[in-house]
Amino acid sequence: MRIGISCDHGGFELKEFLVLALRNAGLEVVDFGAKELDPDDDLPDFVIHMAGAVGRGEVTRGLAICDSGVGACIAANKVAGARAALIADSFSAHQGVEDDNMNVLCLGGQVTGHALAWDLVQEFLSAHFKDLERFRRRLAKISVSENKVSAQ
Fold first, then answer.
1. Under 8 Å between Cβ of 51 and 84
2. Which residue of 3, 41, 82, 120 has the smallest Cβ count within 10 Å?
């Protein structure tokens, strides 16, 4: 499994921890940045590139981290093919994949401790989409909306 990861300054410390944990678990990690702690960086510069790689299938799943996880989630969900959610509990970490084919997990670097973050990442990565007709139908409706161009 090839995992993309991205952050801004607010998620830098947690990203560095997770990169090491993922590599120690034998997973391939593609680090989309930030590559250094810069309090003036902007999360879309990193998250959008990572989410694009997920949407194109260049990485299997993605992790996006900022202060609260909210901005990272908003940015990732602007990218076609990315299905991101801000997750803070184990049930949602696997259920989001199983029912909604979530492929980007968003975390808050200032609100999620290392141990919980690692547990959430493991739940997310070990989960599989159930691929039931009702879930495929829902995702197809989202894809139609995702591909429309706003006239406003």
1. yes
2. 41
Render pLDDT for 13-42 as a digit per residue (tens, 0 to 9).
Answer: 999 999 999 999 999 999 999 999 999 999
pLDDT per position as a tens digit, 80-120: 999 999 999 999 999 999 999 999 999 999 999 999 999 99
Which listed CATH number (3.40.50.150, 3.40.50.620, 3.40.250.10, 3.40.1400.10) goes with 2-147? 3.40.1400.10
The domain ranges of the chain are 2-147
Token pair 């921890």: residue:
17
60's tokens: 């299997």
**Local structure of 88: helix, strand or coil:** coil
